[in-house]
């Protein structure tokens, strides 16, 4: 069982990062030296995706340009003998990978964004990756881990992680019946519950493997708060018909939709960067050692 198609909902405005995102897609914000969307695409390809479906809006041309070929740039790098950089540019999108771009006509929520992919996905099972959720997998990328579960069970798989009880109101929270270590069958799902009403502390994060049944269910899903169509509501309907598994991936997730999570990702992945790690670690050590105590407290 292969996942040939991956969907990337990238139509959001990124208001939490204004003014940086006024003229640039939030998914193009860099983590060290690669944009968020490139990390997401690499993860999808690691799980076997060959067709990448981007659900975009009218301010996302930078994403299209990033995955397009830049003849002028490549020519200049080649003429200047910058072969390493030239290879980096050419490797942004591996050979044999195709991109499809679909405009979301209006901002009506994640569920609506995914429903826009129906014409490109058709009757195939598919993956969904939210680029805001950058996941640094331990031994293999998170979606590749989920792909192994999908191959074994042949059903929808949703990534989850345990969060502090006082943070459950920020997430979709699942109730599960254990199937194995880190794996459970979803019995219920609640969007942003109060801590005292949450069925667990297992929070849904931005990785999904879904059957095409989700499209029909999204069609009949009524808009919720803010007039948005919630993917959580469609998944809640799906578990009445099909098995949907919750998988606790191995790795660390960075919420790059928040400024703090974005900064954390830059620092921690910078400390793993093959060209920068040693120098950056030394700099951070010197910075924290020389930072006056009163400034530390006021910060």
Automatic annotation (TrEMBL):
InterPro entries: GalU_uridylyltTrfase_bac/arc, NTP_transferase_dom, Nucleotide-diphossugar_trans. Its EC number is 2.7.7.9. Gene3D superfamilies: Spore Coat Polysaccharide Biosynthesis Protein SpsA, Chain A. One of its GO terms (molecular function) is UTP:glucose-1-phosphate uridylyltransferase activity. The keyword Transferase applies. The keyword Flavoprotein does not apply. CDD domains: UGPase_prokaryotic. It comes from the Bacteria. It catalyses: alpha-D-glucose 1-phosphate + UTP + H(+) = UDP-alpha-D-glucose + diphosphate. One of its GO terms (biological process) is UDP-alpha-D-glucose metabolic process. Residues 10-268 form the Nucleotidyl transferase domain. Keywords: Nucleotidyltransferase, Transferase. May play a role in stationary phase survival. This is UTP--glucose-1-phosphate uridylyltransferase. The gene is galU.
């Amino acid at each position: 069982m292969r996942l040939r198609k991956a969907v990337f909902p990238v139509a959001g405005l990124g208001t939490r990062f204004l003014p940086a995102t006024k003229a640039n897609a939030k998914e193009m914000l860099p983590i060290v030296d690669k944009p968020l969307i490139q990390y997401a695409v690499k993860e999808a390809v690691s799980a076997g995706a060959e067709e990448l479906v981007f659900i975009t809006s009218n301010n996302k041309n930078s994403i299209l340009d990033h995955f397009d070929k830049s003849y002028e740039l490549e020519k200049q790098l080649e003429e200047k003998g910058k072969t390493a950089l030239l290879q980096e540019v050419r490797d942004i999108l591996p050979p044999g990978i195709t991109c499809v771009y679909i405009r979301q006509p209006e901002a009506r929520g994640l569920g609506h964004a995914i429903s826009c992919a129906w014409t490109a996905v058709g009757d195939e099972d598919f993956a969904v990756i939210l680029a805001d959720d950058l996941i640094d997998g331990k031994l293999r990328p998170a979606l590749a881990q989920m792909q192994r579960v999908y191959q074994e069970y042949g059903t929808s798989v949703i990534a989850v992680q345990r969060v502090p009880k006082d943070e459950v109101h920020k997430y979709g929270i699942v109730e599960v019946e254990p199937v194995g270590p880190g794996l459970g069958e979803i019995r219920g799902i609640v969007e942003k519950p109060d801590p005292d009403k949450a069925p667990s502390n297992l929070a849904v994060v931005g990785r999904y493997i879904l059957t095409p049944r989700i499209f029909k269910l999204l069609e009949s899903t009524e808009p919720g708060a803010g007039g948005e169509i919630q993917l959580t509501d469609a998944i809640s309907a799906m578990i009445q018909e099909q098995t949907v598994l919750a998988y606790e991936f191995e790795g660390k997730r960075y919420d790059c939709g928040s400024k703090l999570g974005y900064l954390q990702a830059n620092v921690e992945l910078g400390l793993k960067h093959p060209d920068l790690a040693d120098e950056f670690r030394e700099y951070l050590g010197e910075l924290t050692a020389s930072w006056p105590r009163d400034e530390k407290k006021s910060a």
